[in-house]
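Render this sequence as a predicted structure.
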Amino acid sequence: MKKIIWLLALFFMFSFSLLNSASAQGTPDRNNIVYLFGGTTEEYKQQLSKTNNQVGTISPEYFHLDADANLIETVDPELVDYAHNNGYKVTPFLGNSFNYQLGVKAMENRENLADQVTQSVLENNLDGVVVDIENLSEKERDQHTDFVRLLADQLQPHGKTVDVAVAPAVQDTYYGWYGSYDYGALGNIADTIFIMAYDYSYPGGPEGPVAPYDWMKNSVSYLTTKIPNEKLVLGVPFYGRYWTDTTKGYGITYSRTSALIQENNAEVKWDEQSKTNYTNFMDQRSGTNYEIWFDDARSLQEKISIADEFGLKGWGAWALGQEDPALWDSLTASDDENNEPTEPSLGERITEEAKSHLGEQITDDQSETFVSELYAAEGITLPENAQDMSNHGEWISDQANLRPGDVLLFGGSRDNLADAAIYIGDGQYVISYKAYGTVKTFNMTDDVAKQYYVGAIRLSEPTTPPLGGRIAAEAESHLGEQITDDQSETFVSELYAAEGITLPENAQDMSNHGEWISDQADLQPGDVLLFGGSRDNLADTAIYIGDGQYVISYKAYGTVKTFNMTDDVAKQYYVGAIRLSEPTTPPLGERIAAEAESHLGEQITDDQSETFVTELYVTEGITLPENAQEMSNHGEWINDQANLQPGDVLLFGGSRDNLADAAIYIGDGQYVISYKTYGTVKTFNMTDDVAKQYYVGAIRLQ
């Protein structure tokens, strides 16, 4: 696949002694993922043995597509068993080698392909799949989302994960490859979203870093507005890229880069802005001029730290074996240095709470009630029925994989479960079973567990519900309240205003916002239902809360009430619905342009137009010199006026080497400038005489 294909997963160890050593160090971090590509099982084992348990999920190249986009699998059961025995998850990636036509066929064949992938995951005891279909377009956006949904519907009930690799967008994009990802929808469906935050430089392109630090950070900042942080994994490159007179931007491993540097006694330089190493030299043997941009342990740690800064699920990489081997000891040392007391995990909190009840008298005959109440206190709802509980979380079949906080399930079989308990570690569990009189601990080696233990489920930290779920829950919280306002629209607009989304208090105007939903079967919680005589004659609104019901604040009813879509009112007056998306932060350029415009008319006290520009950018955490000439060395130079975007810094003077003033482009051929002679901050047009005579070019910051 185009190297941008990404990285995932993890590894393990490769001998009994290593296994014991790794066990002593702890369990692999399953939130961190590495791709396995182009090697053998034995090579993968050796590579994994060096990772110091820093990664815990591996994504090998086991799933391929034939010419008709049907699945070809090359699963090696030896590696799968090895990984599971050493605590790693195995989630192969399904890609299309960046082939657009093959990707389109895969989307057209998505139902069959989802069935084939599901069958392979289940038959080969895999832990899930990574969907890595790249280079589609906006035309396949809905099909791609539907493919992920099909896989999730089939695999997640079995405790298998569905992960998706996505391009590293930095702003709303609706066209081309980036436009093929419905980031918000994918974040709701998938278990993990892997950001392929690399290939900023690419084969055939200009020299530069594979993954500039600021670019990666901007992508994470944007994507966290679309996808819960705890679902995001930041992908980093283990490879570099090199340029010669004839080869432009091909991939290169760290070991090959290191060998070339040593052979040629080349100087390694550091680019602070991108936090990446680079080197230039002539190869003494071939006479070839090289420029190589690459990451080592230092630069990778800088970039991995972004995942910690934003509280992401973890980090990942393409591809294991291509990295600086010093990375693993470096990460371990960093962990040791930062080994400060941390917040207990969900499992640890549940365990401590379960143990705190030991010896209490039991008044309820349901062991499940005890378990569900423990989890309810953590904001996680579990049914008070062992059989229904088994459909929640991740199913754990192997006792060796149990962790504190896991919910143990007892009965005759997986289809006949009767009781529940909390595993607390060291082979012990806490159970509240009325026949015992008090809450007690027992061992997994006791006769009861030997005879009746079936399996366990593992729950994850509760996440923030999607926008629609939050709106529906808030609407329900008002049920029974007295109505004082005759407008049902006011009720709806106030619910959304609390989420930072402005809606007009008029049903007709509301209908022009968000996505129109015409089919009742497609309704989701939080959708705004619209009632009236027709789409052009709307009068009232309500909030859909799921299961065919909605909440409405209609004065004639006296209080806020729920009704069903099958009731006469809905049958007669329901017209359609709109669906709103999570509010997003405008891109940097738009924020700068808006802030610049907010100063229009202000008196100017500083004679430097550059000071005005630098102060706008410093509020965004970007430092620029207060000198137009030095500004020109920052960001991306824009030659063509036709390519200007809001927020670009316009530079004026006699030439590119003689720059004197700066302004902010705000779009539509206009700019804002703070020039003392004008008296106040003003807007001018690029067609005005000043711009015609003195405008030289612009820079764009990210």
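Summary. Residues 141-155 form the longest helix (15 residues). DSSP finds 23 helices and 34 strands in the chain.
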